[in-house]
UniProtKB/TrEMBL annotation:
The keyword Lipid biosynthesis does not apply. Residues 18-190 form the Alcohol dehydrogenase iron-type/glycerol dehydrogenase GldA domain. PANTHER family: ALCOHOL DEHYDROGENASE YQHD. Gene3D superfamilies: 3.40.50.1970, Dehydroquinate synthase-like - alpha domain (1.20.1090.10). Pfam families: ADH_Fe_C (PF25137), Fe-ADH (PF00465). Keywords: Oxidoreductase. Residues 201-397 form the Fe-containing alcohol dehydrogenase-like C-terminal domain. The keyword Ribosomal protein does not apply. GO terms for cellular component: cytosol. This is Alcohol dehydrogenase, class IV. InterPro entries: ADH_Fe/GldA (IPR001670), ADH_Fe_C (IPR056798), AdhA-like (IPR045910), BDH-like (IPR044731). GO terms for molecular function: alcohol dehydrogenase (NADP+) activity; butanol dehydrogenase (NAD+) activity; metal ion binding; methylglyoxal reductase (NADPH) (acetol producing) activity. It comes from Acetivibrio clariflavus (strain DSM 19732 / NBRC 101661 / EBR45). It comes from the Bacteria.
Amino acid sequence: MWEAQININEVCEIRAKTTVYLGVGAIKKISDICAALKAKGISKVIVITGKSSYVKSGAWDYTLKAFEENNIEHVLYTEITPNPTVDQVDTATKMALEFGAQAVIAIGGGSPIDAAKSVAILMEYKDKTARELYEYKFTPDKAVPIVAVNLTHGTGTEVDRFAVVSIPEKEYKPAIAYDCIYPLYSIDDPALMTSLPAEQTVYVSVDALNHVIEAATTKVATPYSILLAQETVRLVAKYLPVAINNPNDLTARYYLLYASLIAGIAFDNGMLHYTHALEHPLSAVKPELAHGLGLALLVPAVVKQIYPASAKVLADILSPIVGGLTGSPDEGDKAFNGLRDWLSSLGIKPGLKNIGFSESDVEKLTELSFNTPSLGMLLGLAPVEANRESVRAIYLNSL
C-alpha cells in the first residue's frame, strides 16, 4: 500500500481551521509556534495538562526550551483528570487570570485539550463560570489563542471545535462546539505516544473509530465525512494490532494518529449521534470509566439499531473489520456480532455489566442521555428516530 512510501520523519502541515504539524519530530515545531505567539505580542501563557504524561512523553522538555528561547513566561496547571470537571476548569482559569496569561497551551490527550479550550473561553468571559458555559447559560464567540500538543491518537480535539467537561453533582457530561475554540496550532508527533499502555492505545483508537461510524451515518453526513470514515477504519484495522504488539512502531503510531486526526475532521463536519450521546452518561456516572471503553461497549448495539437506515454506508466503511456485509438492511445482527468479535480480539470484553452497570441503571442512563445539555441535539441527528424506547434498547443490548 502507498503508506510505505510516506516518510514519517518529514513533518508536514495539514491545514484545516487549525494548522497541524504531523510527523515524527513535530514537537520541535513548538519553538516556531512560540515565536509566532511572541510576534502576536503574547509573552505569558498558561499550560494545561495532567499529572505526569507531559513529562513522561518528552513533550515538556521541548516546550520549556521553546519558552526560554522566546522569553515566554508560563504558569503550569497539572490537575486535569480523565473526564475533567468544571471545577478544574474554573481553578485553572483563576490561575491564568491572576498570572496575566494571554494564551493557553494544552499538553495531553482529550481531557487536557478540552479543559484548555474551556479555559480559553473563560479567560475572555471573566464574569462567567465553567458551569454556566456547559449549561449553555451564554454563547461565546471569542477565546484566547489555543495551542494543542496532542499525546493520544483518539479524540481529534486538536483539530476540531468541540470540548467536553463534566458537571459532577448533576452527573452531566455535556459537549460544546464553538468556532472560537479551534486551536491555532496543534502538534501531532507519534514519537510522543510510544509510552501509551496497550489498553489505552486500544481505547483511544476505538474512540476515533466511533467518531467516523457516527459521522458517516448522521442526518447531516456528507460524501466528505463518509470518505474520511472509510480511510479511518482501514487505517485503524491495519495499524492498531501492530501498535499493540510493538508500542514503539512509529509507522503504526503515525497512521493511528493520522486516522484520529481525520476522524476529528469527519465529525467536525458530519457530527455525532447515538454512541457518544449514550456514552457520556456512562462516564459521567462513573468518571473512572475510559471514554473509549464505554464507546466500545455500546457501538455494536448502536450499529444494530441504525443498520436498516444506513446499511450501504456501514457495510462499506466497516468492511476492514467486519467481513461479508453486503449492505442489505437485514444484516444488523451480523454487524453487531462482527463488531463484538473484532473488539474482543483487541481484548475488550463485551457487556456493560462487566464495568458495573445493570438493568436497574438503564432508566437513569436513558434520562441522562436526554436531559444532559447538548446530548439531545446529538440524538436528534441519528439516522433512525432517537426516543426513550430506542435508547433503552441500545443500553439493554449492551449489557
